[in-house]
Amino acid sequence: MRYYIADLHFFHAGLNEHMDERGFGSVEAMNEYMIKQWNLRVRKNDETVVLGDFSVGKGEETNEILKRLNGTKYLIIGNHDKFIDDRKFDQKLFRWIRPYEEVKDNKRKVVLSHYPIFCYNGQYRLLKDGKPKTYMLYGHVHNTYDELLINSFMEETGKRKVKLTGEEEYRSIPCCMINCFCMFSDYTPLTLDEWIELDGKRREKLEKI
Fold this sequence. Notes:
By secondary structure, the chain is of the alpha/beta class. It has a single domain (2-204), classed as Metallo-dependent phosphatases (Purple Acid Phosphatase, chain A, domain 2). Helix content is 25%, strand content 19%. It is built from 4 helices and 10 strands. The chain is globular, with a radius of gyration of 18 Å.
């Protein structure tokens, strides 16, 4: 099974009171809760893609967190992942570390980036049943005003119709961008299908700007 999650920010004590307002009593309590939630879902043979900002800790302490997390781990580099340049960090704890990647997930393309990409590769492609073939998974913006701006862009894009080469009729433009922010899933890595369902329900409730 493959899971995805973004912006865990291990060791980032300030997020308990500012920005995210996570509300943990200490950074240690936050770290332990995120480890517990991860391991309740992820098993030894599972894979998890972290969409950036895994840890603001130093190399050695980040090593210890990774050793406690189940499964094979992959990292899309985020702007806070400074630990990867620490000479004491063991890069082998991730299967790979990359700034961007595209993978297959149950016959669908998944575009992976820490930063949201508004016009992503394969965006217009559909499966034979008419469902989107490509999803863009991102992080970085947490649950901020920027996420509301992204939501507005997605809604506006969905209203537009285009006639593509080789097609006879106009159709709407797919815009399947999913913010895999860890707080949206209670710090639990989710499958692509789980994120699709959760994201759809969440966006229905977002305020408009």
